[in-house]
Amino acid sequence: MPVTPALLEIRRVAYGQPDAMRLIDEVQAEYVQRYGGPDDTPLDHAMFEPPLGSFYVAYGDGEPVATGAWRRTSVRALDASDAAEIKRMYVVPSARGAGVARAVLAHLEATASAAGIDVLVLETGMKQPEAIALYTSSGYEPVPGFGYYRDEPLSRCFGKRLTTR
């Protein structure tokens, strides 16, 4: 049975939870294929524990099919007073194209907003055109580069206001 967003169960989990780690390993392998190496951004498990952030695994028919997380950040974009960065967005290949990523992104936006975040920012790369299409079609706009890869030519950064000014 194909995975559909209506049948997804999105659970907050610890960053080190086994399903989360398996999917993180898969996304790192995909980065190696696309970019020649893993994402080396320094991450600490505590960054994804409330109130600093949250990490989620999406399950379809009981199987882990996607991840997404946010963590508070000092990055200032789009006149944010309280921003968070999206990390580790990933959907397994068999669940792609069904709206799973869009459902996880909406969940991240809702939970970050509920935690008082007014802007989400993210960094992705030019070799991930599907991600760029998802973010721009979801209202994200280019913002100045930030983070570990800010000076890399393939890096692209985006942001979205979650609250009105």
- Helix-strand pattern, N to C? EHEEEHEHEE
Strand order of the largest sheet: 1-2-3-4-5-7-6
Strand content: 25-35%
N-to-C span: 43 Å
Structural class: alpha+beta
Low-pLDDT stretches: none
Counted beta strands: 7
Mean pLDDT: 91
Task: Indicate the radius of gyration in whole angstroms.
Answer: 15 Å
How would you sum up the major sheet? 7 strands, mixed
Count of DSSP H/I helices:
3
Q: State the helicity in percent bands.
A: 25-40%
CA-based shape? globular
Question: In a nutshell, what does this entry contain?
Answer:
This protein has helices at residues 18-35, 100-114, 129-137, and strands at residues 8-13, 53-60, 63-73, 83-91, 119-125, 141-142, 155-161. The protein is an alpha+beta fold and 165 residues long. The N and C termini lie far apart (43 Å).
Question: Please, could you describe this protein's structure?
Answer:
The longest helix has 18 residues, at 18-35. The chain has helices spanning 18-35, 100-114, 129-137, and strands at residues 8-13, 53-60, 63-73, 83-91, 119-125, 141-142, 155-161. The chain is built from 3 helices and 7 strands. 25% of the residues lie in helices and 30% in strands. 38% of the residues are buried. It is α+β, with helices and mostly antiparallel strands and 165 residues long. It has a 7-stranded mixed beta sheet with strand order 1-2-3-4-5-7-6, sandwiched between helices.
